[in-house]
Amino acid sequence: MTVPSNVLVVGGGPAGSVTATLLAQEGFDVRLVESRQFPRYHIGESLTPSTRHVLQLIGVADKLDAGGFQVKRGGAFRWGDDSWVIDWSKQFGDHVSTWQVDRAAFDALLLDNAREKGVRVEHGIAAKSVDFDEDGRPRAVHCVREGEGPVTLDGFDFLIDASGRAGLLSAQHFRNRQQHRFFRNVALWSYWENARLLPDSPEGGVNVISSPKGWYWVIPLHGGRTSIGLVTHKDVFARDRRAHGSLDDLYRSVIAESDIVSDLVADATCVAEARAETDYSYVADRFCGPGYMLIGDAACFLDPLLSTGVHLALYGGLVGAAALASVRRGELPEAEGLTFFEAAYRRAYTRALALVSSMYETYQGKDDFFWTADRLVREDAGAERGARDSVSFGEIIAGMSDIREATDARTRVLTDRLADEALRVQKEATAGDPDVGEPSFDVLRTEPHRDDSLLGLRVVTEPRLGLRPADPA
């Protein structure tokens, strides 16, 4: 039986750098290759409080606190005719907060920290293909080194694919990604100075504002800068793009279309060229196999409505590293560790998918969102719709429900209900739309499972990172 000790990580974004650091801290020999030079620009500035939990484990949370990043304590929503505020400090305590970050600086900090913790980091190496042995384990990765040409990386016994949307394994080798046809969107954004937030926003809170074309984000950054963007369907974007001479013209047009957003930028100055990027949502039909894991956007991507991208990347890194650490110490077989990783990670994605899907559904009021959130978190939520509070909604968008389920032995995970809710809301939202068809979520159900407590295991961080049997609740 192969016991992993030498790990190759492909990709130096948050998923790759954090997973590599956690493994290095547990005694693994870790090599990380990244195609680009850092720092490099990346969208996705808004983090969730769950990330603080992981970033404390690798020793960078204090650096972020001291680094001048904008503190974030929740968000303010203007959706349809409703408005509500999520203030995590008031709901869960003053210790529950996170950051709005400059991703170029944030990602570089994480990768530098990986290097400091013993990870061998190499830039300018683009992974292109993978060879597998007869047992289905990866044995070599064929790459191109910048300025030199082809190079083959081998000598590892475990591969972490954190290659992002490029998808070294899921998109290029296995070709097993399922796109969610419901989320065929494009993001259009730029940056402003001196923009305002909605008046009831918590400190550093993201503003989410619905539109007939989709939804806007307003994200305050340090130094008085604000990221403002619109997410809209690809067909709407293509139609509007043809009607405007430039991307900047289109961007200014969509800002002007919202009275709320226009008011927030009335005294502000746009200080950057507009950018656009497709953000089609997808999920691989498996996140792991003998000798490999997919983490971050390499495994799955979801519409950014609830800022789940970095949360899913770091959560996947946490549960993946915990599983591998226990496998290396002989505490459980690799297959069992991988099954836990697959179950925990896929359920986190499914919960986020269900809640985001409900917000794209035909609008029935904020209580319907809160009802869906209750059903995704609470075993006793009940089937009756009606007035609900926002606690479960706030917990999910904080990423706290995923961390709690993975680490708390008393937690029950509502396995089938998560996939059922994702299917229900997308069926309701797409009823009668011939372009979407019948949604299918077979890949969201993880089998086999012993019970609703994540295969009878949980993540522990003391005295060592790993998996332990979950005591009966």
From TrEMBL:
Statement: the UniProt record of this protein carries the keyword Methyltransferase: no
The UniProt keywords, alphabetically, are: Monooxygenase, Oxidoreductase
Q: Cite the InterPro entries for this sequence.
A: FAD/NAD-bd_sf, Flavin-dep_Halogenase_NPB, Flavin_halogenase
Gene3D superfamilies of this UniProt entry?
Answer: 3.30.9.100, FAD/NAD(P)-binding domain
Q: Which GO terms describe its molecular function?
A: monooxygenase activity
A Pfam family annotated for this UniProt entry: Trp_halogenase
Q: Which PANTHER family match?
A: FAD-BINDING DOMAIN-CONTAINING PROTEIN, FAD-BINDING PROTEIN
Instruction: Spell out the family assignment given in the record's similarity comment.
Output: Belongs to the flavin-dependent halogenase family. Bacterial tryptophan halogenase subfamily.
The protein, known as = Halogenase
Source organism of this protein record: Streptomyces diastatochromogenes
